[in-house]
Design goal:
heterodimer; A: seven-stranded mixed beta sheet; four-stranded antiparallel beta sheet; B: about 120 residues; six-stranded mixed beta sheet; about 0% helix
């Protein structure tokens, strides 16, 4: 089975621009989560989607948004980029969600975003 | 709110020596705990998970972890380190909020393996 794929792998943008990152989950996985990883703040949860609905959102400004399509693929968008948005953005997919069990999350290779 | 604390941001061991990476959790409900490994320029790879079935959990690459409720710990061990184990390791706890599944990570431990 193919793993989680993310495109693009590397991206360089200028302050004020916007960017869209894409994530394709493992086949059959309906949950997609996004995380931001920086040296200073570590791994931080951005948001999670299940069946095209956002079910959780982390403590990030409204410039960070996402969506999920009917095929479970997900995109995240960052508008009005700031230097501090430079990070590795990781997408993770999971088979299911809920209190009935802890379904592990499988991560993609990430998109390295550099804002200049 | 659930959280994890990883003691030691850097750990160095000799090849063949025991690896011990520490993780303590804080949770108001029985936790689900995970260890992930990250190699340079890669995403996170799941090593093992604890979901209350057994307190000693075996994972990939010879790693295992023991859940100790009395100590609120979930330390990761490997009997004999290999050069290929050099990487960053993250402990994580999952919380079910809003009907969803969110991972909260520790700050990571960089493992160095020396000859």
């Amino acid at each position: 089975k193919a793993g989680v794929t993310q495109t693009p792998r590397y991206l360089i943008k200028t302050r004020g621009q916007q960017v869209t990152l894409s994530c394709s989950p493992i086949s059959g996985h309906r949950s997609v989560s996004w995380y931001q990883q920086t040296p200073g703040q570590g791994l931080q949860f951005l948001f999670e989607y299940f069946s095209e609905t956002q079910r959780n959102k982390g403590n990030f400004p409204g410039r960070f948004s996402g969506r999920q399509f009917s095929n479970s693929r997900s995109e995240m968008n960052v508008s009005t980029l700031e230097l501090g948005d430079s990070a590795l953005y990781l997408c993770a997919s999971s088979l299911a969600i809920g209190a009935s069990g802890a379904y592990e999350q499988y991560f993609g290779p990430g998109t390295r975003l550099t804002v200049t | 709110a659930q959280s994890v604390t990883q003691l030691g941001s850097h750990v160095s061991v000799s090849e063949g020596a025991l690896v011990l990476l520490r993780c303590n959790y804080s949770s108001s409900v029985p936790p689900y705990l995970f260890w992930y490994v990250q190699y340079p320029n890669q995403g996170l790879q799941l090593l093992l998970k604890y979901t209350s079935a057994a307190t000693l959990v075996k994972g990939i690459n010879g790693f295992e972890a023991e859940f100790k409720k009395s100590e609120t710990s979930f330390h990761l061990t490997k009997p004999s380190a290999h050069m290929s184990d050099a990487a960053e390791y993250f402990c994580a706890v999952t919380s079910f909020t809003g009907g969803g599944n969110k991972l909260t990570f520790g700050t990571g431990t960089q493992l160095k393996v020396e000859l």
